Amino acid sequence: MTRHPLPLILLAACLGGCAAPPQHPPQNIGEYEQQLQTAPQDFTPLSVALHNATRVLNDALPAQERVSSLELLERLELADADTLAALAGILKDPQAPEPVRSAVAGFLARKGYGVVETVTMTPPVLPADLRTRQQILDYIEAHPSPMALAEVVKLWAGEKAPSEQDEVRFRRLVEKLAGRQWDLALLEALNSKDFNARGSAMEVLASRIQAGQLGPRIAAMNAQSETLQALQYFSDQFGYLPRTRSELLAAVILFKQPPEMRKLASRVAARWAADGGYRFNIRDYHLLSRLAADPLRSFLPRQEMIQQIAAAMSMHRAGPPDRKRLGRVVDFAAQADTLTLADLWNIMLLEGVLGRPRAQEAFRRMAQSDRADTKSRWAGLITYDQGQAEAKLYNPAESRDDQNYVPGEQMLRDAADSLCYFVGHFDRDYDDPAQVGPDEQEMRLIRDQNLYGLVLTSLAGGMMNAAYLNPAGAVIDLGDFPIGAKP
């Protein structure tokens, strides 16, 4: 955002030849109150307003200073239409700090200036603080517009535990904006090609209507959107309805795959369900479809799989398993009963990949390159096809430091059809067991994006530790593996 010059009125005052005034007008309410008491003639309210409007627009200033100037600007009640329009421009800037965007959104809401347009901007303004959100909702309820429906639904989905009062209000507001009962409005939104909050609509519906009731209602609709077609297909063929926006996105992406591949996946899912009470999840689709297409893979009983995995893991440990090696319970045997068949297959396949010299050499090269790059961790996706697993790196959406990886939109879309997400902790050789394995950010990514994960950590002696994780919070220490022989 462009930094604005100080108002000309202040420049004229500095050239007036009188005694030297203070260096600048008051820049927060406290300074203004002091000026009113000690030197009310130094700066007029208009000059103070112009100065602080300029400060709010100055992206070189710390966020709190900009918010303080905005609070003073509101106190002065001198912001004209041009000033309000300039402030609204902050909300179009994706780089603007969230506290500034939130404060500006609340200020504009209280002024009744373009609130509907404000909350429908890209990126949308969905402030975190309760006071500002309530002010925006107050304005929208007083000035209902269908334009605001998507953003209201996003706000509603973001309320993980709304109070009874807030729940009633959101239902009333959706009905007011859509002109029909809230659940009908959200079902119609899922069937609309133009509604841009279908994931949020699905989250609201799935958390308030039981799947046994929601599924038949979706099945009875005349599908006009690809989203509803995908929902009807996975409900009918897999007995599955997404519950989150990431699950819904994955279902829509996978619905575009060839029908024969979808049929193969549904047959394996049905077999697993009949044999061991398996319940399909969209994150398992890649595994199911690839296993079905692999003629060399035989389907093993659950207990036999557990035994084979335990035997393979014993080859990658010098001694008995350490149940707390990664700072949490990570022993496979202690958690085997809580793992799904998909978990067991994932672990078995990953154990096989990590034990191959070719894969170990590839990870060694990746570790060397990652260590030379101090701007970001390296990460990507592992896919499985025709008996072979392949790792593909993805550039981060933004580079922060060597301790963070920020996934991009393309990686998250491709993750819908992958075995798992993987990330390397290769910045140094770790020797503290509590520092080996996933951090909280990675656990949160796995949970929020509904993925399986693999964390690879450099150890001394040319070794790396591999840890498997799932969205339920399980972390399994797969063991220590060589990172390939040096050329």
What would you say this structure looks like, in words?
It is a single chain. By secondary structure, this protein is α+β, with helices and mostly antiparallel strands. The protein contains 23 helices and six strands. The chain has helices spanning 8-14, 29-38, 45-57, 63-76, 81-88, 98-111, 115-119, 130-142, 149-158, 164-178, 182-190, 198-206, 211-219, 226-238, 245-255, 259-276, 285-292, 302-314, 332-335, 341-354, 357-372, 409-414, 440-449, and strands at residues 378-385, 388-394, 420-425, 453-459, 463-469, 475-482. The chain has a six-stranded mixed beta sheet, sandwiched between helices. Strand 4 and strand 5 form a beta hairpin. Helix 11 packs across helix 12 (198-206) and helix 18 (302-314) runs parallel beside helix 20. The longest helix has 18 residues, at 259-276. It is flat, with a radius of gyration of 28 Å.
Condensed summary:
The protein contains 23 helices and 6 strands. The chain has helices at residues 8-14, 29-38, 45-57, 63-76, 81-88, 98-111, 115-119, 130-142, 149-158, 164-178, 182-190, 198-206, 211-219, 226-238, 245-255, 259-276, 285-292, 302-314, 332-335, 341-354, 357-372, 409-414, 440-449, and strands at 378-385, 388-394, 420-425, 453-459, 463-469, 475-482.
